[in-house]
Amino acid sequence: MGIKERKQREREMRRQQIMVAAKRVFTQKGYEKSTMEDIAREAELSPGTLYLYFKSKDELYASLCLRVLRFINVKVDHVINEENTTYEEKQEGLLRAMRDVYAYDPLILNNMFHLQSSDTLRTLSPDLLDEINDLSRKALQSMAGMFEHGINTGHIIDRNPLALADIVWALFSGIVLWEESKKMINPNRSDLEKSFELAFDIFGRGLEKLKKEGRNGDDIQA
């Protein structure tokens, strides 16, 4: 291994060290109360060293969110691209994928949804923002491909596939954010699994082609 490659490897290891420490601090103190100084202490580094890798707490947190977005894409791609599966099986697989994504990192996922709807995105570096947008776009396009397949095979009504993917993403993010809010009000009230199942069941039934046909077989326009 040459000097350049070794330095790149060391830099990536240090970057991962900082991200692991940040995850611990964010979990313990919450995003708002955490500081770069807290993270530096946890990582046993100087605050100045952190700023060599991440220009702000927002950028550090956004980098953690990238891991969740990559995981989302892996899970969704596996479901959508699996051969010899029906549309119904793909739809059920998508629900399982969403559950797996939540179980992977509930805290970061919850705050990722907050991040995507805030002005914080405007403070990120162009490269980081581009990667977040690209990964989000890719996940939506994969889901849109599933709906397009359902439309082409006559399983669901003919609607804009990308709009349907947007609705699924809105359902997913909305349920996650609301369930996390309920935990603050009443820890015993949250039941994310049942909420997921009910929301996806209602959404899926609304798309079924036979459910939307009139007596003469004509689609009822929604």
CATH superfamily of the largest domain: Tetracycline Repressor, domain 2
Helix content: over 70%
Distance between the termini: 62 Å
The mean pLDDT is 85
Shape: globular
Domain count: the total is 2
The biggest sheet amounts to:
none
Low-confidence stretches: none
CATH architecture of the largest domain: Orthogonal Bundle
Question: What's the order of the H and E elements?
Answer: HHHHHHHHH
What's the β-strand tally? 0
Find the CATH topology of the largest domain: Tetracycline Repressor, domain 2
* Strand percentage: under 5%
User: Helix segment count?
Assistant: 9
CATH classification, class level of the largest domain: Mainly Alpha
Radius of gyration: 21 Å
User: Structural class of the helix and strand makeup?
Assistant: mainly alpha
Question: Would you mind describing this structure in some detail?
Answer:
The chain is an all-alpha fold. The chain has 2 domains: 1-54, Homeodomain-like (Arc Repressor Mutant, subunit A), CATH 1.10.10.60; 56-212, Tetracycline Repressor, domain 2 (Orthogonal Bundle), CATH 1.10.357.10. It is built from 9 helices and no strands. It has helices at 3-29, 36-43, 47-53, 57-81, 87-104, 106-116, 126-152, 161-185, 192-207. The protein is globular. The model has no long low-confidence stretch (mean pLDDT 85).
